[in-house]
UniProtKB/TrEMBL annotation:
Domain of life: Eukaryota
Domain Helicase ATP-binding: 223-339
Protein name, as recorded: ATP-dependent RNA helicase SUV3L, mitochondrial
The species this protein was found in: Quillaja saponaria
Family in the record: Belongs to the helicase family. Belongs to the DExH box helicase family.
Cofactors named for this entry: Mn(2+); Mg(2+)
Subunit (UniProt): Homodimer; in free form. Component of the mitochondrial degradosome (mtEXO) complex which is a heteropentamer containing 2 copies of SUPV3L1 and 3 copies of PNPT1.
Domain Helicase C-terminal: 372-535
Catalysed reactions listed for this entry: ATP + H2O = ADP + phosphate + H(+)
Amino acid sequence: MISELWGGNILNPKPFSSSVDTKDDDVKDSSVWSPAEVAESEFAYDADVGKAVGFESEDDGAESSMCDSTVTELEDNDSGRDGVDSVRYGQHEHVASRDPVELYRALCSVERGAKLGHSSSALMEVFDYFAKSGWASNQALAIYIGLSFFPTAVHKFHKFFFKKCSTDVANYLISLGPCDKAVKYLFPVFIEYCLKEFPDEIKRFRSIIESADLTKPHTWFPFARAMKRKIIYHCGPTNSGKTYNALQRFMEAEKGIYCSPLRLLAMEVFDKVNARGVYCSLLTGQEKKSVPFSNHVACTVEMVSVDELYDVAVIDEIQMMADPTRGYAWTRALLGLKADEIHVCGDPSVLKMVRKICSDTGDELIEQHYERFKQLVVEAKTLLGDLKKVRSGDCVVAFSRREIFEVKMAIEKHTNHRCCVIYGALPPETRRQQANLFNDQDNEFDVLVASDAVGMGLNLNIRRVVFNGLSKYNGNKIVPVPASQVKQIAGRAGRRGSRYPEGLTTTLHLDDLDYLIECLKQPFDEVKRVGLFPFYEQFELFAAQLPNITFRQLLENFGENCRLDGSYFLCQHDHIKRVANMLDKVQGLSLEDRFNFCFAPVNVRDPKAMYHLLRFASTYGQNVPVNIAMGMPKGSARNDAELLDLETRHQVLSMYLWLSNHFKEDTFPYVKKVEAMATDIAHLLGQSLTKANWKPESRGQRKPKSEQKEDEQKEDEKKKDGYSRPHSLVQSFEKKRREKSLQHEQAGKIAA
Ligand SMILES: Nc1ncnc2c1ncn2[C@@H]1O[C@H](COP(=O)(O)OP(=O)(O)OP(=O)(O)O)[C@@H](O)[C@H]1O
Ligand SMILES: [Mg+2]
């Protein structure tokens, strides 16, 4: 990232102009040639062929230069090759030690430099190397030569240099060849050249940079800075009472706000707090439930107001500050909340960062450390690959929708257990319905199959967490699940106050057990940087510097040019760029409209959802009330395609509700209707899941019916012998096992 490379240099570009450390005395030294002398010299030392070669001089060598005479003198002394070498050495030493400012001035004052003849190609290589130098392009940022302008600047510098350069300087560079030393020699001269030749470009780029300045984020919230805030860090592992204790203070306060990482958790707190008689409203991107007379609000962290004053604020799962995509929302809440007392709850990974932020903001920090109520116990025997060993109260964790359904099907087919499911694409209402179904003892649904969506803060009646696997697709490739996440998920087992206060965890397969134990033993990684993203106002300022480019290009430019302190990173925004790209051609949207549309919750990999977002934006752009234009399905899903369809429909409705909360009310007027549809679909999804016993499909990758049939036949063949492992895992585990047995075989052979 640019910020890292820049360090503090941008504020102090001076070192570059003096990077060749030359004393004043040296400049006055008579052995250093004057610009005129440099210009007039005709001889060069060809490093490649090891002899002095003559450059073609315009003046035909009529005026003897100091260089000439030096060479002549040495040659006259009959010093032979040694003499030539020492001349070269002497010349190079002089050239190498020249002050770059003085050298630049010398180049400028020359009418016409030496003709380079065939040496120009060697010099050209040096300049090519310079143009490609990442070091040079990054250091040039310090004087506001942007990365995109750098090649042009080098090209012009190269032309200037070739026109003006003297033989000795050319020789010196050629003797160095295309290398870092040559780059470092040229760089300060290049800087002098840029400062003189490109003042407008530098000014322009400087304005861009300054408007993309995300350094010192603690200064962005002057009101919060004017307050004497007390930050209480509830620091500890899962199930240690962090949120519970923070919520006690929240409920006691006159006015309080609870910031949740998930809609579902915000709803849980909303319910809990109201049930205790403390009036509390709910605010998420999609829903606003205003409870009359309430002074408390449970919200999702993205929705937190940094304008309102509160007595007590709670920021739950504070370690999410380091989340690559959403981290900025936690950082903003911590820096900007106007609350006398802020309770942050989380694991110890961001403790040092919070300490640093508090020292920057001047807030008082109180640390409260917690231990887990009951230690989590690892069951070493595992399920030995057999899902028939699943027991009541188990939560089997799988990391893809496909695996979740495969596991559910396998359990329901081979045991008497019934499974509830929780995964990210389900609406919070459905997740809650499934969680309640699982928590409730008076039904047959006693096993939960869930994705990592179950991992944060939720209180479920889980006896044992069984990891179906410990690797997942990260959007690019299959990677091991990070230890911190494994801990979070395993920590769902055995919650205080639940039916199973003593938690167990294990893996489906023996091969995964070591990794599980390793993850649980590992101390929390210390986070070095937390996320930031510009507010609309910051982005608007930046956009004003680049008036003629599209919104997506603006986002890209911002990413390239923004400056950050070493403790922060710019949150990933590829999904925002995808939406921006799609909306580029939509007419009638202001910059702010585009900014808001790009933050709408949409699965960018779902073409149907993207289509609806495009339609919403186009209608909005025409200044026409946006309708939902979507029918309701007749009943619950009968197969996975219908289930996927229900999921997408709910996401579209949810997106509409989100937009209605982020744009003027009259532009999205069908909120009531959409809310009712969303409730119905969440209900249908719940119904569908309880009876789901079909094979899962990938979104948008439905195979033709003939292929599906073939696959089904193959599966049936495999299953004739009884239980078969979930399809998506078979290959990887079989491969691992084969490798292991091969190793054993080889070891056996060697021993024999
Ligand atoms: N002092 C207490 N008295 C009664 N119940 C408590 C107490 N402290 C915590 N609990 C209960 O223990 C369970 C776990 O507590 P809590 O949710 O605060 O844990 P946590 O440390 O925030 O865990 P996580 O990191 O998973 O969010 C909750 O059901 C909570 O209500
Ligand atoms: Mg908690």
